[in-house]
């Protein structure tokens, strides 16, 4: 039963990561890392495919080894956060737009405190 839940979680995470490739508010790499974690517990073959993927494999290995995020990844996340804040300030009512600002500040601070490899 647990294997099936991890497998489903891996596919859902991978799907959200694919959607995130087109939506600036949804991150791609963290969902792919989560998918690899789920697949490690349910399907070693699918985990191996993610680890060998030319686009995402290095990110997964870097995260697993050192909890590291590349400088390029940090910059991309910062740009996505900035776009989210601008959209929230432009389209959301005043007190609610501050939720996005706070989330971007907290998330951005955490990302920039991660090591680079």
UniProtKB/TrEMBL annotation:
Protein name in UniProt: YbaN family protein
Annotated TM spans: 6-39, 79-112
Ranges in a coiled coil: none
Keyword Transmembrane helix listed: yes
Entry keyword annotation includes Secreted: no
InterPro entries per UniProt: DUF454
Keywords for the protein's UniProt record, in alphabetical order: Membrane, Transmembrane, Transmembrane helix
One Pfam family linked to the record: DUF454
């Amino acid at each position: 039963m647990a294997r099936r839940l991890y497998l489903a979680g891996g596919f859902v995470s991978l799907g959200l990561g694919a959607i995130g490739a087109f939506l600036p508010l949804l991150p791609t790499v963290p969902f792919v890392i989560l998918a690899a974690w789920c697949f490690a517990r349910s399907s070693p073959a699918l985990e191996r495919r993610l680890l060998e993927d030319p686009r995402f494999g290095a990110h997964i290995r870097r995260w697993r080894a050192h909890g590291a995020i590349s400088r390029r990844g940090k910059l991309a996340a910062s740009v996505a956060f900035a776009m989210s804040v601008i959209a929230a300030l432009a389209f959301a009512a005043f007190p609610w737009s501050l939720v996005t600002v706070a989330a971007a500040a907290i998330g951005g601070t955490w990302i920039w405190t991660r090591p680079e490899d």
